Amino acid sequence: MMFLLLCLFIGASVGVLTPRRYDNDKVFRILPKTEKEVEFIKYLDNKMQLDFFKPASSHQVIPNNPADFHTSAEESEIIMKFLEKKGIKFDILSENLQETIERQFQVVEEKNNRSGRIFRYQPWEKIATWAFSVALRNPKLVSMMEIGKTYEGRPIILLKVGKQKACKKGIILECGIHAREWISPAFCQWFVNEAVKTYGKDKNMTRLLDRVTFHVIPVFNIDGYVWSWTQDRLWRKNRKPNGECIGTDLNRNFNISWNKFEKDEDPCMQAYAGTGPESEVETQAFSTYIRKNLDSIKAHISFHSYGQMLLYPYGHAEENIPNHEIVEKLAVSALEALSGLFGTKYIHGSISKIIGLVSGSSIDWSYEEGIKYSFGFELRDGKIYNFLLPESLIKPTCQETMLAVKVIANHVLKLET
């Protein structure tokens, strides 16, 4: 294991580069009301290459659904004039994106935080050290393994959490497939820490860990995550070069209706799906691991941000999945538990109905492979912070999400096979 720990820090070195800054850049939220307004947004994107936050591309913009995008300070004045001229409603969520990025690290300590701990986002090197340490300190509950390597050569690590026995049901927790969504890896760390801390004390967690193995990937897209810490806070894709631009959206790269809707051959786009299904080594590693463990894995939960949504398949088709009624009831129960803690409101439903048609996603792929309880969480927030959720909100976000995950896990526990 010591050799693996050393390898965790080996990867393509980052030269002396100046990190990208977003001084005076703006984040817009638009609300197109008609198909005509949607078509204009797509036209504007084609001409000015808008950096969409939510949804990931203009392809998914639909009437009466808000969409967020980022523009440079110079372009924002032009875009405002265009939107005003067309009568498209908009708000500016961030007047200076660089200041919003920097505020993410300003923690206001909670008045009732008895432990005195402040929860912070962690760079990859600290996550790797933590993973090694938690496995070393809890050998009866946690084991660490490598399931593949990233494009830049970093080992993709997976933690198996639960009593180490054979013939147990499994649940995949997949975090950090999009580099800039930092609350996602933070939740996977939270889950593992809470599992080992409360085993033997919390009856429900003890029962789960005795009978279920959680396969936890703390950071799926490690190269991109490192880049988001060192060079570009809002980087989304992996770091494999594709001609003039770098990166593939790993959550569009799975072998399920690959590139069916976007038809986007431009590798510079945020949602670029790659050169083919499973063209990326990270996707290949995850897919191979799932296929090898299909007999035991009963659920797959992918964690993203932002928007406060609980999604399930299909994304690549508009029809309901065969077990739609069961999955829908489970989603409702999970969100009842989540909202019961702090009153946080989520919406839920299939990907295609909530955010539009999407091809190549991890949960669509795993569902078609036979994992019939595949979900995607879009964690906090829904209104202000987008990908830049302040560190002061890590704890409540993870606490409420843990309750929802336990509901899904308890359902898995009841399955006959």
UniProtKB/TrEMBL annotation:
Domain of life, source organism: Eukaryota
Domain Peptidase M14 residues, every copy: 120-412
Stored InterPro entries: CARBOXYPEPT_ZN_1, M14A-like_propep, M14A_act_pep, Peptidase_M14
UniProt GO molecular function: metallocarboxypeptidase activity; zinc ion binding
Cross-referenced SUPFAM superfamilies: Protease propeptides/inhibitors, Zn-dependent exopeptidases
Classification via Pfam families: Peptidase_M14 (PF00246), Propep_M14 (PF02244)
UniProt-listed GO biological process terms: proteolysis
Keywords: Carboxypeptidase, Disulfide bond, Hydrolase, Metal-binding, Metalloprotease, Protease, Signal, Zinc
Active site: E378
Gene Ontology annotations for the cellular component aspect, listed alphabetically: extracellular space
Cofactor: Zn(2+)
Record's signal peptide: 1-15
Family, as annotated: Belongs to the peptidase M14 family.
Name assigned to this protein: Carboxypeptidase A3
Gene (UniProt): CPA3
